[in-house]
Amino acid sequence: MNLTLKIWRQPHATAEGAMHTYAVGDISEDMSFLEMLDVLNEQLLGQDEEPIAFDHDCREGICGSCNLMIDGQAHGPEVTTSCQLHMRSFKDGDEITVEPWRSDAFPVIKDLMVDRSAFDRIIQAGGYISANTGSAPEANSVPVPRDQATRAFNMATCIGCGACVAACPNGSASLFMGAKITQLGLLPQGQPERDSRVVGMVGQHDHEGFGGCTNIGECTAACPKEIPLDVISQLNKDLRTAIRNGH
Amino acid sequence: MRRPAPARTGHLSHARVIRAPPPGGTVWTVATTTLVKGARATRSTIAIKLAMAVSGFVFIGFVLAHMYGNLKAFAGHDSFNEYAEHLRTIGEPILPESGLLWILRLGLVASLVVHVSAAVWLWRRAQSARTVKYEVTKRRHSSLSSRTMRWGGLTILVFLVWHLLNFSIVKVNPAGGATNDPYNLLVDTFDVWWMSLIYLIAMGALAMHLHHGTWSALQTLGLTGTASARSRAKTAGWIVAVVVAGGYSLVPLGVLFGVITK
Ligand code: HEM
Ligand code: SF4
Ligand code: FES
């Protein structure tokens, strides 16, 4: 199929950017969205033009780096990552707009690439459990009920892609925080640092300049891992508990 | 590629290059983004939301009680005026005349200050969280009421000012009649069709605000931790919105259709 692409180009972080229009042809519907961009980049290289910078790594939906706002939807029209989005979701002749995540906490590095290290710092501020190194403890010494383990696992599927922030009209990272808070809060290992975790993570979130959540729900619809809105309730509840405990 | 040594300002901080080298240039800008130390739960965005949810619930309690009073208009002139009078004398002689009314008023004004300041603060924060807008946005997964909380809230605020001028602080009778009889003032007001229309529009705005606000407040308070609790909270939003807006609207509609007369 033949497509018209409108893509944000920005040479570097502090440069002015603008939308540029490109035409690509001969796109198979079995290609992924990123493969389609690869074709375009080959074409640009052939014309001695700077290829479009976009982030990607695994191309199998698990690393969370392929962040693209496609036609106003984070990761495009399907519930998946941009690398797992196939061109069969588009029609011949379509005009597709591709933009980077827009969040002041995720500054653009170049073209479609943004710097998501704010997420790393939120995790650093409390999204972990402290464990002693040394010989591994006996795995069955800390029993975890099966439904709790399953739910914790489901919340742990967050890949930190940032689609929730990109889709949120407030630019809030509550879904991302909530997934980690809920995951660790369900496990016995997560209990000792429970209060300091939520306070640290939320404090870092606010410091990075993310917005406040108003429970609109665009985040969960954009999330490729279908993290549910319940996690934001859990986040709020843990913070309320931390306030009660004097934090 | 040449990289500058990361600026170290403490063991919890690290440097981040936010600017790639301009083609051919050598200028680097390094932003140091530190980890927050000593974060306070009470100073967080979520704490602000909690204040908003609690003040929102104060309003919901108030609008329900106020609606009960308004519906007394269907019981006739004397019953309505007695109720208005009764509000001023509850608690006597322990409280002075209008004592309880003043306590309620102060509570409501305090809640309004909290609610509106929190709304303004969150609004500004959201604006600075995304200073470069998208060329295209598709928001298909959120309710209209959730996306209009701010402008809808402002509509309610503007209405509130007029409403208080109309019935309480100044007492304006748009039909030009007397203002010292609450029941007659009400009938005179709603007999003017555009006055009724203003009230009905305001109730539409209130319904939307409560549709999202009720569920949102429950979520902010952390009471919707499962899928079923979430769907119950959303149903609660619908019920509160329909009951409140519907209940209030019955009065102007009653006057327009001649059920409530002088
Ligand atoms: C006076 C002008 C008002 C403004 C500017 C305003 C604005 C807002 C805003 C921006 C929100 C946050 C949106 C969200 O959390 O999703 C909100 C939430 C809310 N508002 Fe209002 N509002 C006003 C009046 C009212 C009134 C009169 C009521 C009740 C009858 C009310 C009840 C609520 C409730 C229950 C919430 C949910 C709180 C939460 O999400 O935690 N508001 N309001
Ligand atoms: S919660 Fe979902 S959308 Fe947000 S970072 Fe995790 S995987 Fe991405
Ligand atoms: S490239 Fe890893 S999730 Fe898409």
Plain-language structure description:
The complex is a heterodimer of chains A (247) and B (262). Chain A is α+β, with helices and mostly antiparallel strands. Chain A has two domains: 3-110, Ubiquitin-like (UB roll) (Roll); 116-131 and 143-244, Orthogonal Bundle (Fumarate Reductase Iron-sulfur Protein, Chain B, domain 2). Helix content of chain A is 34%, strand content 11%. Chain A has helices at residues 33-46, 117-124, 146-155, 163-167, 174-185, 194-208, 218-222, 230-244; strands at 3-9, 18-24, 69-70, 73-74, 95-99, 108-110, 113-114. In chain A, the strands form two sheets. Chain A has a five-stranded mixed sheet with strand order 2-1-5-3-4. Chain A has a two-stranded antiparallel ribbon with strand order 6-7. The termini of chain A are far apart. Chain B has 262 residues and is mainly alpha-helical. Chain B has a single domain, classed as 3 helical TM bundles of succinate and fumarate reductases. Chain B has a two-stranded antiparallel sheet with strand order 1-2. Chain B is globular. Mean pLDDT of chain B is 85; it is low at 1-22 and 24-31.
Summarize the model shown.
Chain A is of the alpha+beta class and 247 residues long. Chain A is built from eight helices and seven strands, in the order ββαβββββααααααα.
Order of strands, widest sheet of chain A: 2-1-5-3-4
Output the strand order for the largest sheet of chain B.
1-2
Bound molecules: protoporphyrin IX containing FE, iron/sulfur cluster, FE2/S2 (inorganic) cluster
Q: Give the overall shape of chain A, derived from the CA principal axes.
A: elongated
The CATH architecture of chain B? Up-down Bundle
Q: Helix and strand layout, with pairings?
A:
The complex is a heterodimer of chains A (247) and B (262).
Chain A: E1 3-9, E2 18-24, H1 33-46, E3 69-70, E4 73-74, E5 95-99, E6 108-110, E7 113-114, H2 117-124, H3 146-155, H4 163-167, H5 174-185, H6 194-208, H7 218-222, H8 230-244
Helix pairs in contact in A: 2-6, 3-5, 5-6, 5-8, 6-8
Chain B: E1 13-17, E2 30-34, H1 45-71, H2 77-89, H3 99-129, H4 144-147, H5 149-167, H6 182-191, H7 193-220, H8 227-256
Antiparallel strand pairs in B: 1-2
Helix pairs in contact in B: 1-3, 1-7, 1-8, 5-7, 7-8
The structure holds protoporphyrin IX containing FE, iron/sulfur cluster and FE2/S2 (inorganic) cluster.
